[in-house]
Amino acid sequence: MNDFSEEYVENYEQKCLCVLVLDVSNLLGPAQIAEMNKSLQEFYKIIQEDETTSQRMEFCIITYGEGVSIIQEPCTVERFSMPAIPSSKSLPALTEAINEAIGKVDARKRWYKETGQIYYRPMIVLVSKEKYTSVYESPLYEILKRDISEKIYSFVNFVMDVMSHQEEWIVSMGNGSKDFSSAFHKILVNEFVRDWLT
Fold first, then answer.
1. Backbone phi, psi, residue 6, to 5°
2. Which long-range contacts does 105-113 make (Cβ < 8 Å, 24+ apart)?
3. Does the pLDDT of residue 90 top 70, yes or no?
Protein backbone atom coordinates (compact mmCIF):
# COMPACT_ATOMS: atom_id res chain seq x y z
CA MET A 1 0.00 0.00 0.00
CA ASN A 2 1.35 3.45 -0.95
CA ASP A 3 0.81 5.29 2.33
CA PHE A 4 3.27 7.80 3.77
CA SER A 5 0.92 9.20 6.44
CA GLU A 6 3.21 8.21 9.33
CA GLU A 7 6.32 9.77 7.79
CA TYR A 8 7.55 13.09 9.12
CA VAL A 9 8.96 15.94 7.00
CA GLU A 10 12.75 16.23 7.30
CA ASN A 11 13.10 19.52 5.46
CA TYR A 12 10.86 21.83 3.48
CA GLU A 13 13.08 22.22 0.42
CA GLN A 14 11.09 21.91 -2.80
CA LYS A 15 11.13 18.19 -3.55
CA CYS A 16 11.50 16.20 -6.75
CA LEU A 17 10.73 12.49 -6.71
CA CYS A 18 12.74 10.27 -9.06
CA VAL A 19 11.33 6.75 -9.40
CA LEU A 20 13.91 4.39 -10.90
CA VAL A 21 12.25 1.39 -12.58
CA LEU A 22 14.99 -1.12 -13.32
CA ASP A 23 14.93 -4.22 -15.50
CA VAL A 24 16.77 -7.05 -13.70
CA SER A 25 15.29 -9.88 -15.74
CA ASN A 26 17.15 -12.65 -17.51
CA LEU A 27 17.14 -10.54 -20.68
CA LEU A 28 20.12 -8.63 -19.26
CA GLY A 29 23.55 -10.19 -19.03
CA PRO A 30 25.98 -9.78 -16.10
CA ALA A 31 27.91 -7.01 -17.89
CA GLN A 32 24.72 -4.96 -18.40
CA ILE A 33 23.65 -5.40 -14.77
CA ALA A 34 27.15 -4.34 -13.68
CA GLU A 35 27.04 -1.25 -15.90
CA MET A 36 23.60 -0.33 -14.58
CA ASN A 37 24.89 -0.60 -11.01
CA LYS A 38 27.95 1.48 -11.83
CA SER A 39 25.85 4.24 -13.39
CA LEU A 40 23.42 4.27 -10.47
CA GLN A 41 26.25 4.58 -7.95
CA GLU A 42 27.79 7.45 -9.92
CA PHE A 43 24.43 9.19 -10.20
CA TYR A 44 23.83 8.81 -6.45
CA LYS A 45 27.29 10.23 -5.69
CA ILE A 46 26.66 13.31 -7.84
CA ILE A 47 23.37 14.01 -6.05
CA GLN A 48 24.84 13.30 -2.61
CA GLU A 49 27.72 15.73 -3.11
CA ASP A 50 25.49 18.64 -4.13
CA GLU A 51 24.22 20.33 -0.96
CA THR A 52 21.08 21.78 -2.51
CA THR A 53 20.11 18.87 -4.74
CA SER A 54 20.66 16.32 -1.98
CA GLN A 55 17.99 18.08 0.08
CA ARG A 56 15.51 18.23 -2.79
CA MET A 57 15.88 14.95 -4.68
CA GLU A 58 14.01 11.90 -3.44
CA PHE A 59 14.63 8.43 -4.82
CA CYS A 60 12.33 5.44 -5.08
CA ILE A 61 13.74 2.22 -6.59
CA ILE A 62 11.58 -0.47 -8.18
CA THR A 63 12.99 -3.57 -9.88
CA TYR A 64 11.17 -6.01 -12.09
CA GLY A 65 12.14 -9.50 -13.13
CA GLU A 66 10.81 -12.13 -10.80
CA GLY A 67 7.75 -10.02 -10.09
CA VAL A 68 8.02 -6.42 -8.90
CA SER A 69 10.11 -5.44 -5.88
CA ILE A 70 10.27 -2.13 -4.02
CA ILE A 71 13.98 -1.83 -3.21
CA GLN A 72 13.72 1.68 -1.77
CA GLU A 73 10.72 3.73 -0.68
CA PRO A 74 10.92 7.48 -1.49
CA CYS A 75 13.50 9.35 0.57
CA THR A 76 16.39 11.79 0.21
CA VAL A 77 19.94 10.53 -0.38
CA GLU A 78 21.02 11.17 3.20
CA ARG A 79 18.60 8.47 4.39
CA PHE A 80 19.82 5.61 2.21
CA SER A 81 22.79 4.26 0.26
CA MET A 82 22.33 3.21 -3.36
CA PRO A 83 22.09 -0.60 -3.17
CA ALA A 84 23.65 -3.06 -5.59
CA ILE A 85 20.83 -4.20 -7.86
CA PRO A 86 20.70 -8.00 -8.17
CA SER A 87 19.83 -9.86 -11.36
CA SER A 88 16.89 -12.21 -11.75
CA LYS A 89 16.43 -15.40 -13.74
CA SER A 90 12.85 -14.54 -14.64
CA LEU A 91 11.21 -12.73 -17.52
CA PRO A 92 10.28 -9.08 -16.99
CA ALA A 93 7.03 -7.87 -15.42
CA LEU A 94 7.25 -4.39 -16.94
CA THR A 95 3.61 -3.32 -16.98
CA GLU A 96 3.21 -4.13 -13.29
CA ALA A 97 6.42 -2.23 -12.46
CA ILE A 98 5.35 0.94 -14.28
CA ASN A 99 1.91 0.80 -12.65
CA GLU A 100 3.67 0.54 -9.28
CA ALA A 101 5.81 3.56 -10.16
CA ILE A 102 2.75 5.62 -11.13
CA GLY A 103 1.14 4.63 -7.83
CA LYS A 104 4.22 5.79 -5.90
CA VAL A 105 4.17 9.14 -7.72
CA ASP A 106 0.47 9.67 -6.95
CA ALA A 107 0.89 8.74 -3.28
CA ARG A 108 3.98 10.87 -2.78
CA LYS A 109 2.34 13.91 -4.38
CA ARG A 110 -0.61 13.49 -2.01
CA TRP A 111 1.81 13.35 0.93
CA TYR A 112 3.61 16.49 -0.26
CA LYS A 113 0.30 18.33 -0.39
CA GLU A 114 -0.92 17.02 2.97
CA THR A 115 2.32 18.11 4.65
CA GLY A 116 2.50 21.53 2.99
CA GLN A 117 5.52 20.79 0.77
CA ILE A 118 5.96 22.25 -2.69
CA TYR A 119 7.44 19.99 -5.33
CA TYR A 120 8.79 19.77 -8.84
CA ARG A 121 7.24 17.49 -11.43
CA PRO A 122 8.23 13.90 -10.50
CA MET A 123 10.30 11.73 -12.83
CA ILE A 124 9.83 8.07 -13.71
CA VAL A 125 13.05 6.68 -15.14
CA LEU A 126 12.78 3.27 -16.79
CA VAL A 127 15.96 1.35 -17.60
CA SER A 128 15.17 -1.63 -19.81
CA LYS A 129 16.88 -4.12 -22.07
CA GLU A 130 14.74 -3.47 -25.14
CA LYS A 131 11.37 -2.30 -26.40
CA TYR A 132 8.52 -4.18 -24.74
CA THR A 133 5.48 -4.60 -26.94
CA SER A 134 3.44 -5.52 -23.85
CA VAL A 135 3.41 -1.84 -22.85
CA TYR A 136 2.73 -0.37 -26.29
CA GLU A 137 -0.13 -2.78 -26.84
CA SER A 138 -1.76 -2.24 -23.44
CA PRO A 139 -3.98 0.47 -21.88
CA LEU A 140 -0.90 1.57 -19.91
CA TYR A 141 0.52 3.14 -23.07
CA GLU A 142 -2.41 5.55 -23.32
CA ILE A 143 -2.10 6.38 -19.62
CA LEU A 144 1.58 7.24 -20.08
CA LYS A 145 0.86 9.45 -23.10
CA ARG A 146 -1.93 11.26 -21.28
CA ASP A 147 0.02 11.78 -18.04
CA ILE A 148 3.12 13.02 -19.85
CA SER A 149 1.11 15.45 -22.00
CA GLU A 150 -0.64 16.75 -18.86
CA LYS A 151 2.75 17.10 -17.11
CA ILE A 152 1.73 14.86 -14.22
CA TYR A 153 5.24 13.40 -14.33
CA SER A 154 8.16 13.18 -16.71
CA PHE A 155 9.01 9.80 -18.17
CA VAL A 156 12.20 8.65 -19.84
CA ASN A 157 13.11 5.14 -20.96
CA PHE A 158 16.78 4.25 -21.29
CA VAL A 159 17.00 1.28 -23.64
CA MET A 160 20.16 -0.79 -23.46
CA ASP A 161 19.87 -2.29 -26.94
CA VAL A 162 19.68 -0.54 -30.31
CA MET A 163 16.15 0.29 -31.33
CA SER A 164 14.21 2.85 -33.29
CA HIS A 165 11.07 4.42 -31.91
CA GLN A 166 9.28 7.70 -32.44
CA GLU A 167 8.27 8.51 -28.86
CA GLU A 168 10.21 11.42 -27.42
CA TRP A 169 10.70 9.73 -24.06
CA ILE A 170 12.71 6.82 -25.54
CA VAL A 171 16.50 7.10 -25.31
CA SER A 172 18.42 4.50 -27.32
CA MET A 173 21.95 3.88 -26.11
CA GLY A 174 23.35 1.23 -28.38
CA ASN A 175 25.16 -1.90 -27.28
CA GLY A 176 28.20 -0.34 -25.62
CA SER A 177 28.38 0.27 -21.90
CA LYS A 178 30.03 3.65 -22.54
CA ASP A 179 26.93 4.73 -24.45
CA PHE A 180 24.70 3.75 -21.55
CA SER A 181 26.73 5.48 -18.86
CA SER A 182 27.25 8.71 -20.79
CA ALA A 183 23.58 8.99 -21.87
CA PHE A 184 22.34 8.17 -18.39
CA HIS A 185 24.38 10.94 -16.79
CA LYS A 186 23.91 13.49 -19.55
CA ILE A 187 20.14 13.30 -19.46
CA LEU A 188 19.47 12.72 -15.77
CA VAL A 189 22.15 14.95 -14.29
CA ASN A 190 22.61 17.71 -16.85
CA GLU A 191 19.16 18.03 -18.39
CA PHE A 192 16.85 17.02 -15.55
CA VAL A 193 18.46 17.40 -12.15
CA ARG A 194 20.71 20.43 -12.45
CA ASP A 195 18.29 22.42 -14.60
CA TRP A 196 15.35 21.77 -12.28
CA LEU A 197 16.78 21.60 -8.79
CA THR A 198 19.57 24.20 -8.61
1. -90, 0
2. 105/17, 105/19, 105/152, 105/153, 106/2, 107/2, 107/3, 107/4, 108/2, 108/4, 108/17, 108/58, 108/60, 108/74, 109/17, 111/4, 111/5, 111/7, 112/15
3. no
Residues 70 and 141: their CA atoms lie apart, in Å, by 22
Cα 70 to Cα 52, 60, 67, 85, 144, distances in angstroms = 26, 8, 10, 11, 21
Using 50, 70 and 90 to split pLDDT, how confident is the model at 72? very high
| More confident site: 176 or 130 | 130
Instruction: Indicate the pTM of the whole model.
Output: 0.84
* Residues 63, 135: Cα–Cα separation, whole Å: 16
CA torsion sign for 104, 110, 115, 118 is: positive
What is the per-residue pLDDT across 135-161, written as a single tens digit (0 to 9) for each? 666 788 888 889 988 989 988 877 776
- CA 2 to chain centroid, in Å, comes to 17
